[in-house]
Inverse folding.
């Protein structure tokens, strides 16, 4: 089971529960984690992540977390990171949705909805700042 929640502007919480096949979902050990995004510049962002398992999973749980951390970091540095950097060079300062991105799978819809919500929240914040400066 994987449950992902997003809280604007940049907090994602993950709950992963692994059980043996045929076992009730509630019996498995939950692994909780978070990813936190914070802007560095107009075109770059820091991504922080953390996750772990309950203490009673002991050394086996700690070893799993170490392997999971490495398997998260390596592909990001070697695959996702270079793709995102190239994408940012292409997009530049243009509004992302003006590029008419193609949604390739159902999972892309969540990212598009999140982007639309962020655009709305940014516009609302700009209106509030403008209104307070006019007052």
């Amino acid at each position: 089971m994987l449950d992902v929640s997003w809280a604007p502007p940049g907090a994602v919480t993950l709950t992963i529960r692994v059980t043996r096949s045929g076992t009730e979902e509630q019996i498995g050990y939950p692994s909780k984690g978070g990813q936190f995004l914070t802007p560095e510049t107009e075109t770059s962002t820091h991504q922080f992540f953390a996750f772990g398992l309950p203490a009673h999973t002991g050394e086996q749980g700690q070893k799993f977390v170490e392997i999971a951390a490495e398997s998260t970091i390596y592909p990001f540095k070697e695959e996702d990171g270079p793709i995102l950097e190239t994408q940012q060079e292409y997009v530049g300062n243009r509004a992302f949705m003006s590029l008419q991105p193609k949604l390739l799978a159902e999972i892309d819809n969540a990212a598009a909805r999140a982007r639309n919500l962020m655009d709305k929240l940014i516009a609302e914040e700009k209106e509030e700042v403008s209104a307070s400066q006019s007052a």
Remarks:
- The mean pLDDT is 84.
- The first helix runs from residue 58 to 91.
